[in-house]
């Protein structure tokens, strides 16, 4: 399920430029407050937090950059959130998040946000394909980070192996959600459907489990046609494309066919 999360800042303060890890921790804090949500995100249910089976976008807000800070120019903000949970839990999730507070920042500046509303996003309109498959056109709202096979560099959409890397990361999510056999046998197709003359990329700072950080590179400005069974397409939309989705990378929007 996917939501537009509407926020209101307590005051016009500043966010660190790399606020995504802090926002991810704030989201997990709310999920952990419910025994039902904590159980649903457990290993037994296949929705482990460490598998990154949720995703979110960058905050949509007016700001003024100043060194390593983003100074808010408006108290009203929003971002997109994807959780791979049964649709029957939609009302529960809305109740869990609504009117909660998110504390986002670092040791220098922390901003308190009240969650004003969670608005469910409409379901995608799939294009039917032969053999009972379906397809979607998708593009990233936040940068997509994909490693090459040797895990030594990040790939651009125009580079060989990019779509293979998309499918590999997608298959890993299927294995984490279902099982290894289902992932191995899943028929997944990814094809570049459009890209800007110059694909943009953006650097982001990602928090490691040991508390250290590392810089990664993610790409924007491209459209991908993805084809699979509908449950696997649904999984991709909820959990994002590529790596580090649970730290704000790879959130997707559907492009009208």
Give a brief outline of the structure.
The protein is an alpha+beta fold. The protein has helices at residues 20-32, 35-40, 90-97, 162-177, 180-185, 230-239; strands at residues 2-9, 14-16, 54-56, 63-66, 69-72, 76-83, 101-105, 110-120, 127-128, 134-140, 189-195, 201-207, 213-219, 222-228, 252-255. A hairpin with a 4-residue loop joins strand 7 (101-105) and strand 8 (110-120).
Radius of gyration: 18 Å
What class would the helix/strand composition place it in?
alpha+beta
Strand arrangement, largest sheet?
3-6-1-8-7
The main sheet comes to: 5 strands, antiparallel
Number of strands: 15
**Secondary-structure element pattern, one letter each:** EEHHEEEEHEEEEHHEEEEHE
Rounded average pLDDT: 86
Which characteristics define this entry?
257 residues; alpha+beta; five-stranded antiparallel β-sheet
Structure description:
- InterPro entries: Cas_Cas6_C (IPR049435), CRISPR-assoc_prot_Cas6 (IPR010156), CRISPR-assoc_prot_Cas6_N_sf (IPR045747).
- With 257 residues, the chain is α+β, with helices and mostly antiparallel strands.
- The chain is built from six helices and 15 strands.
- The chain has helices spanning 20-32, 35-40, 90-97, 162-177, 180-185, 230-239, and strands at 2-9, 14-16, 54-56, 63-66, 69-72, 76-83, 101-105, 110-120, 127-128, 134-140, 189-195, 201-207, 213-219, 222-228, 252-255.
- The strands form four sheets. Strands 3-6-1-8-7 form a five-stranded antiparallel β-sheet.
- A hairpin with a 5-residue loop joins strand 9 (127-128) and strand 10.
- The longest helix is centred in the middle third of the chain and has 16 residues, at 162-177.
């Amino acid at each position: 399920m996917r939501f537009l999360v509407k926020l209101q800042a307590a005051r016009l303060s500043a966010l660190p430029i790399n606020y995504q890890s802090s926002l991810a921790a704030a989201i997990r804090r709310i999920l952990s407050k419910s025994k039902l949500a904590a159980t649903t995100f457990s290993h037994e249910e296949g929705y482990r937090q460490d598998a990154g089976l949720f995703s979110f976008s960058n905050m949509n807000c007016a700001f003024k950059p100043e060194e390593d800070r983003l100074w808010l120019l408006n108290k009203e903000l929003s971002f997109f959130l994807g959780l791979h949970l049964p649709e029957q839990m939609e009302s529960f999730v809305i109740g869990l998040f609504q009117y909660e507070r998110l504390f986002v920042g670092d040791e220098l500046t922390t901003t308190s946000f009240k969650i004003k509303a969670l608005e469910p996003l409409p379901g995608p309109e799939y294009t039917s394909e032969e053999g009972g498959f379906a397809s979607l056109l998708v593009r990233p709202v936040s940068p997509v980070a994909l490693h090459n096979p040797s895990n030594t560099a990040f790939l651009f959409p125009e580079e060989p192996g990019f779509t293979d890397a998309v499918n590999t990361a997608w298959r890993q999510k299927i294995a984490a959600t279902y099982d290894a056999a289902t992932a191995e046998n899943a028929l997944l197709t990814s094809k570049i459907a459009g890209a800007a003359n110059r694909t943009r990329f953006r650097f982001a700072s990602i928090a490691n489990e040991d508390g250290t950080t590392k810089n990664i590179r993610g790409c924007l400005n491209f459209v991908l046609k993805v084809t699979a069974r509908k449950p696997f397409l649904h999984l991709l939309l909820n959990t994002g494309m590529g790596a580090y989705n649970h730290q704000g990378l790879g959130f997707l929007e559907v492009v009208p066919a």
